Amino acid sequence: MPRLDVFLQQLINGLSLGGIYALIALGYTMVYGIIELINFAHGDVYTLGTFFSLATLSLLGVSGELHGLPLIGVALLTIFVSMLLCGLSGVIIERLAYRRLRNAPRLAPLITAIGMSFILENIMQYWKGPAPIPVPQFIPNPSFHIGSIDIAAKQILVILLAIVMMVALQLFIYNTRMGKAMRATAQDRDAAQLMGININTTIALTFLIGSALAGAAGFVSGVYYGSTYFFNGFAAGLKAFTAAVLGGIGNLAGAMLGGFLIGLVESMTTQFISDQWSNVVVFSVLVLVLIFRPSGLLGESVPSKV
Amino acid sequence: MAARARSAPLAALKNPRLQAIGLFVLAAILPLAVNNGGFTNFLTDAGAFVLLALGLNIVIGFAGLLDLGYAAFFAIGSYAFAMLSSPQFGIHVPFWAMLFLASGIAALFGILLGAPTLRLRGDYLAIVTLGFGEIVPQTFLNLSQWTGGPNGISSLDQPTFFGYRFGFQVLPYYYVMLALIALAIVVASNLRSSRLGRAWMAIREDELAAAHMGINTTTTKLAAFALGASFSGLAGVAYGAKLQLVSPDQFGFNVSVAVLSMLVLGGMGNIPGVILGSLVISSLDRLILPQLTNFLHDVVAPVFAGSAALHGFFSTIDLANSRFMIYGVILVVMMLFRPEGLLPSRQRAAELHAEDDDPTAAAQEQTMYNKAVT
Q1: B59 in reach of chain A (CB within 8 A)
Q2: Which class for B121: exposed (0-12), middle (13-18), buried (19 or more C-beta within 10 A)?
Q3: How confident is the model at residue B1 (pLDDT cuts 50, 70, 90)?
Q4: How many Å apart are CA A293 and CA B58, to the nearest integer?
Q5: Contact flag A279-B138 (C-beta cutoff 8 Å)
Q6: B119, exposed or middle or buried, with CB in 10 Å at 0-12, 13-18, 19+?
Q7: CB distance B336–A279 less than 8 Å?
């Protein structure tokens, strides 16, 4: 395979990987934008999404490939259930672990977030055991050949899903009253409250949407990788957070851009350096971005205090 | 301090210094009295975690910098010992010299990591240290030509003390650990009341105000990072020598979070609290959970012999798998309901409960806020 083709192949792989990171990164960036909390448990909500999809598929009795109408029905139902349950999990986590600490020193909710992450991981470990779990491959996966490059249908699905969700989110945030309330709360919580916005509801809504997007990512990652593992969310969450920071935290388009870039960084490292260094490279990107450009690629300047 | 809570008839018992010495004498006799190799082994490992907790306490408790990658410095200390004091490269630096050398190396890495990152705001710093904590063990894993990769480095040098070879008994390592803890306590408590320690607390409480009072925040925070790291360098050498082995899986994120939960449980910033927290969590991990598991297998499971499901559940459950759940619950519950820990320092408790009884501007703001919410 000529070098250019290898590059193009990894470009496709990286973009589809990046689609998953982008969906997770949106949740990080929304929550950070509104309450300035690194929602450490978000990566585990994403893994929970794959687990919910698995449970839905086994309830529906799906084990093999589907075609036609059943395929569309099962896919839509599974993604809906997974998004709904993840969204609710996010709301519950916020209510239990973060709301009480909204005015506490900043590090307090971060510590509870780490605690929630450990709790969720342990729950998933009890639920499905400590070993990787196969996810039924019910979506047919023909691949398309362009020259010597293979593009799998799943890869197109991931990228399309990420873009559709992103557009829907943008429309929601910039064209609805609730979206406006979210933007106002993010800008100045007290002022928003004085304008009659119920900030508890607005923050809960942010968690609902962000976690639902992680649920969608969880569904699509089950389809894409064909397996899951209770501890997946830790590394994926950290990479998605890196994506959010790279794009400029609080910025939705930035999260998307960052997600795709991190996916590319990971696939290119795997191809051109080595698989075992990919995590090291991604985390080094995080460290370097935070040091040299903490506002990210698309973000405005971050207040430096505390 | 703990001395205030206790009402002993003898005035001497109220002296915290005498209390500490008494506790150390008890700790020195304890393994001899129990005379059980497994228990001594447990005490020694628990000692390593006490040392780690005392070190992390300087970073989080005193200076208020959330370091989520503290295990990385533990790894660096251990690997420094393993590489410089084993057949790996044929270098055999004596154990006692390695204690100083490895804590210096760990402190150096603390400075290397801290110098560019300490300007970041608190939560970003947490994530950067977390990333660092992931990179370090992964790097040790990947550089297998030097570090032995996933197998790690084994048959490390055994210390000798005036001609006495430690060999494979655990007791001498226990006394080394105890001595290191004593040293760490003396250093940490002196640091806390020093100019540097007061500067750390000023930064923890209000960085901007501290800077305006003429404190150089960057070097002060760097000192916290370096000193905290040096403690885990010590722990790394002692732990590695005792285990005769280092491998990359000993230093994961779970170790950093375990030490963090020790601090949160015991009371960040308070030395007796931190020691208590680490002893409680080590005992849970190594003594109570396995015992409870055995109890469920041997006593509870037969009770449910009639029901296959319950019997199966109780006879196969392994509570050691619940370790992460316990760390998680400790972190969440403590931060929500008792953020100052079980055994808090007075300043920290006051700081975290400012709104309870302190009619300051912050408290008024809080009430106004609450009114506005409802």
Answers
A1: no
A2: middle
A3: very low
A4: 29
A5: yes
A6: middle
A7: no
ipTM, two decimals: 0.88
Place of tokens 């809570």: B5
User: What distances in angstroms separate CA B184 from CA A21, A103, B53, B103, B180, one per listed residue?
Assistant: 43, 35, 10, 12, 6
Q: How far is CA A241 from the centre of its chain?
A: 9
Taking only residues 291 to 330 of chain B, the set having a beta carbon closer than 8 angstroms to any beta carbon of chain A reads 321-322, 324-325, 327-330
If residue B35 lies in a helix (H) or strand (E), which one and from where to where?
A: none
**Cβ contact (<8 Å) for B127 and A286?**
yes
Task: Specify the pLDDT at position A304.
Answer: 41
> A129: nearest CA in chain B?
B321
**Residue A89 and residue A19 in contact, taking contact as beta carbons nearer than 8 Å:** no
Question: By the 8 A CB rule, do A97 and A113 touch?
Answer: yes
User: Is A262 within 8 Å of A282 (Cβ atoms)?
Assistant: yes
Alpha-carbon distance A124 to nearest alpha carbon in chain B (angstroms): 11
DSSP assignments along B267-302, one per residue: -TT-HHHHHHHHHHHHHIIIIIHHHHHHHIIIIIHH
Looking at chain B, how many residues does it have? 374
Q: Between chains, do A306 and B128 touch, taking CB under 8 Å as contact?
A: no
Give the integer Cα–Cα distance in Å for A263 and A21. 7
Mean pLDDT for A88-103 is: 93
Q: Which of residues 54-83 of A touch B (CB under 8 A)?
A: none
Q: Which amino acid is at B106?
A: A
CA dist., res. A127 & res. A5, Å (int): 42
> What mean pLDDT is predicted for residues B69-81?
92
**What pTM value is reported for the model?**
0.87
Coil vs helix vs strand at B119: coil
Dist CA B114 CA A77 (whole Å): 48
